[in-house]
Amino acid sequence: MRKTFNFSAGPAVLPESVLQEAADEMLDYKGSGMSVMEISHRSALFQSIIDETEAALRTLMNIPNDYEVLFLQGGTSLQFAMIPMNFMRNRKADYIVTGYWAKKAYQEAKLYGEIHVAASSEDDNFSHIPDCSDLDISPDSDYVYMCENSTIYGTKFHKRPDSKGKILINDISSCFLSEPMNVSDYDMLFGGIQKNLGPAGLVIAIIRKDLISETVLPGTPTMLRYKTHADKGSMYNTPPTYNIYIVGKVIKWIQSLGGLDKMKKINESKAALLYDYLDKSDMFCGLADKDSRSLMNITFRTGSEALDSAFVKAAGENGIISIKGHRAIGGIRANLYNAMPIEGVQHLVQFMEAFEKSEGQYE
């Protein structure tokens, strides 16, 4: 049994049953006498793993047949470059800048062309999602880019931006498989799996097939072309085999709970526990505006850096791990990814109550 509750932003908590099942199969996967870590990616045994994982993801998300599912490496940060390399054919794009990672993507894209900020909440310290119902989009823009959920600032889009007919690309790293979504509302979805789906080292990209072509920016390396990976079934080179295996198990775990509709209800219940406490607390204050709050990443602070640090230290001594806010903004952050049990949130809230009653002198 776990003795701690891991609130890390990623690599993050995984379902205990998935970890146990993987442990049981560690030395001998399906009678092969080998660990999945040792199985050749060119073997029929691994081909069945990647095929089953993709099929399960397609079923869970209801991914249309005209979308490609790619298993990629390099983290989401590499996608910040791959996206303009593959899609910025007019050398122009629009970015919605709503947090640290959206800004990183915007800055990277500027290396490849003229980038316009269609909307931003930076002036308000990224505390909310800006109104995206009438975006100022460049007429000859190649695409519109967004990051649906801000891991660091704890905000989330609750309505699809109006991209005015332009290709819409969405980074869903922090909310991947946390709730249902209409894949067809977007032309590309992508995310690192290290928050909700598995161990760090794999990105899943879901892209409209007709957008994947040989037409890329001059000088784009072979490995950074989506067509390279689409043509080879995500096995142009050796993929992160163990990560794909774990993703398949996490998807089955979500299915066993009742799918994404049930997952959303569970996540809403967990988030409500913490938000309800923050809204009535005299010591702790949430950072995100109420209409932009994330279910996955809840950011807050006491108003005193010293008291924030004292809280983080005391929390760690009480089995609440990795609660410190991101280095970019400080404060405190609870990451309530799918695998965080409601007992972990209850334990956190109970500890916050005790800490507040002690006026920061908790022992």
UniProtKB/TrEMBL annotation:
Mostly located where?
A: cytoplasm
Localisation = Cytoplasm
- Tell me which residues bind pyridoxal 5'-phosphate: W101, T151, D171, Q194, N237, T238
Q: Report a single Gene Ontology molecular function.
A: O-phospho-L-serine:2-oxoglutarate aminotransferase activity
Which residue numbers delimit the Aminotransferase class V domain? 5-348
A Pfam family that the UniProt record links to this protein: Aminotran_5
Q: Cell membrane among the record's keywords? A: no
Name the job this protein performs: Catalyzes the reversible conversion of 3-phosphohydroxypyruvate to phosphoserine and of 3-hydroxy-2-oxo-4-phosphonooxybutanoate to phosphohydroxythreonine.
How does this polypeptide assemble, per the annotation?
Homodimer.
* Similarity comment: family membership: Belongs to the class-V pyridoxal-phosphate-dependent aminotransferase family. SerC subfamily.
UniProt xrefs under HAMAP family: SerC_aminotrans_5
Q: What is this protein called?
A: Phosphoserine aminotransferase
Q: From which organism does this entry originate?
A: [Clostridium] clostridioforme 90A6
Supply the gene name: serC
